[in-house]
Specification:
The protein has eight helices and seven strands, in the order H-H-E-H-E-H-E-H-E-H-E-H-E-E-H. It is an alpha/beta fold. The mean pLDDT is 97.
Length: 203
């Protein structure tokens, strides 16, 4: 088995992970786990990209959880599958190639997860619309925020239409995170067709 820092370094070499030092990306990833405050059974990393935070959470924070890494890029998914094999995570961590809107319509994933994490996935409205269909009632969405914080980024009324309730935001090791709870099943009309959550955001 290859260690996590080496795997993340390979992802940087492939051009699918940012240039920040691996230890900083690992520390930021651990912030998602701290913001969630518990270990989920089934979790999704929405827009996994190079594998941060999903791979870090699966290895360092949630070693018992089943984790799904979702990304719309076939190339990134191919690299993620190599990472999963290198880290000996096959069977517990899976890679799902597809748009988040499509995954949210997949019966295998709809309402099936108790945590969704999102880092640099898109504007808050798109994140919420793509994450809510994946969450079971009582599950949580944790979103990383820009350095200036979450002020003015969320609309509680629009979130209610998705069954989401914003529980709060906190700063952990210098980074902001917002936690939302799936308070009711997401309405069947969400997510809308691929691309629409970002082009015509709910808020």
């Amino acid at each position: 088995m290859t260690d996590l820092a080496t795997v993340l370094g390979r992802q940087q070499g492939r051009g699918v992970l940012g240039p920040d030092p691996a230890r900083e990306q690992q520390a930021h990833s651990r912030g998602f786990a701290a913001a969630l405050g518990r270990t989920p059974s089934r979790a999704v990393d929405l827009g996994s990209g190079g594998g941060v935070p999903g791979l870090v959470l699966a290895v360092e924070c949630w070693p018992e959880a089943d984790v799904v890494l979702v990304d719309a890029s076939q190339k990134r998914c191919t690299y993620l599958e190599l990472c999963v094999a290198d880290l000996d995570l096959v069977g517990r961590v899976t890679v799902r190639w597809g748009r988040a809107e499509e995954v949210g319509r997949d019966p295998a994933h709809r309402g099936a997860h108790d945590a969704v994490v999102a880092r640099s996935f898109g504007p808050p409205a798109a994140v919420a619309e793509c994450a809510a269909p994946l969450l079971a009632v009582g599950g949580h969405l944790v979103v990383s925020e820009p350095p200036e914080g979450p002020e003015g980024r969320w609309d509680d009324g629009a979130l209610a239409a998705l069954g989401l309730v914003r529980e709060g935001s906190e700063r952990i090791d210098g980074a902001w995170f917002t936690r939302l709870r799936q308070d009711a099943p997401c309405a069947e009309r969400f997510p809308r067709r691929p691309g629409l959550p970002a082009r015509r955001p709910l808020f």
